[in-house]
Design brief:
By secondary structure, the chain is mainly α. It folds into 2 domains: 1-62, Leucine-rich Repeat Variant (Alpha Horseshoe); 76-137, Leucine-rich Repeat Variant. The protein contains 8 helices and no strands. Helix 2 runs parallel beside helix 4. The model has no long low-confidence stretch (mean pLDDT 94).
Length: 137
């Protein structure tokens, strides 16, 4: 199994975009936290927007501070589809920075991004209200 993880991580670092995409597709339902760092790196640094977008499919399976930090940065991605899926994922995080970023994304030039930001913001605001109520109890 450890050998397989090494092969997967190596494939994620390949210059072959189709190999990276296929690997991301194969691991998106494998909940192994060792995939977080390579996928965060792809989200923030890969030249291909389809690879960046596909990395969000893996990252959505985790709730991790490294992912939140990457998502906050990726809200400025040049690709509207990447920004839209980043907005979708930000709704998972009960964090005021995520809420602020989602509010900023309501002014995005892309309706796709705005739609995801609105939906995520509703979810997040509900979660934050629950969190505040629990803190009082």
């Amino acid at each position: 199994m450890q050998e397989d993880l090494g092969i997967i991580k190596e494939a994620l670092q390949s210059d072959d975009d189709s190999l990276v995409m296929n690997t991301l597709d194969k691991i998106k339902n494998i909940y192994d936290e060792s995939f977080i760092s390579p996928c965060v790196d792809l989200l923030l640094h890969h030249k291909n927007p389809f690879v960046r977008l596909k990395s969000t499919e893996v990252l959505q399976n985790f709730n991790d501070p490294r992912i939140l930090e990457a998502l906050l940065i990726a809200t400025n991605d040049e690709d509207r589809f990447v920004r839209g899926f980043v907005a979708k994922l930000l709704g998972q995080y009960e964090d005021e920075r995520a809420e602020m970023k989602l509010k900023e994304m309501l002014n995005d030039s892309s309706g796709f991004v705005v739609d995801f930001a609105q939906k995520s913001l509703k979810t997040l605001e509900f979660k934050l209200k629950i969190q505040k109520i629990k803190a009082r109890v």
